[in-house]
Amino acid sequence: MPSAEFVGQFALLVVTYSALVVAIHLLYARLARSARGWLSSEKGGYLVNKLGGATFVGFGVGLATASR
Length: 68
Hints:
It is a single chain. The chain has about 70 residues and is mainly alpha-helical. The protein is built from two helices and no strands. It has helices at about 5-40, 40-65. The chain is elongated.
């Protein structure tokens, strides 16, 4: 049976981890909100399309040159 000090430490671990997860997700939401305007602009959309295309070309080259 766990002692009382381990239960307290575990509770602190759970609270700390939960707080960090919430803080990180709030940061993600804030960054997404600020990037929304730029990504929906013509310049942002153009850049996303070019980066996406280059990524798929890179994947294709990697697959073409990969050996079994």
